[in-house]
Design brief:
The two termini are 29 Å apart. The strands form three sheets. A six-stranded antiparallel sheet has the order 1-12-11-5-8-7, with no helix packed on it. The chain has 147 residues and is mainly β. It is globular. The chain has a single domain, classed as Alpha-macroglobulin, receptor-binding domain (Immunoglobulin-like), CATH 2.60.40.690.
Amino acid sequence: MKEAFSSGYTIKKIVTPIEQKKKGIWSRGDVARIKLELESQSDMTWVVVNDPIPAGSMILGSGLGGDSSLMTRGEKKTGWAWPVFTERTFTAYRAYYEYVAKGTWSLEYTVRLNTSGSFELPETRVEALYAPEMFGEMPNVKMEITQ
């Protein structure tokens, strides 16, 4: 995928360093805040947002060992859409919404980059679970994480 595609939803992704060893260069152990700004063209029920993370990374906020509640302070959600369930897997962040009204909303999550390497991630996607023709996709850039 080379450019964003919209069929009812649009996505904008902003990656902000929270803790970075070298400015402008991602290193193992760095922490990033991911902000997804989303727009829906119509009211829809049961919508999921799926945003992949680099292999070996950890999404903070689960409360498990090695997790930092200080790093997740400042995460914001805006708009009228609130997730009923979120998944923090080792491959992606997923947020499930029972209802999304027409308009814009955003969500944020924090990730610690634990593994060095070059990562080509699949696209970020938002879709209506019971109306598969309503979706939006955005390609992710190649991510380089150094030692």
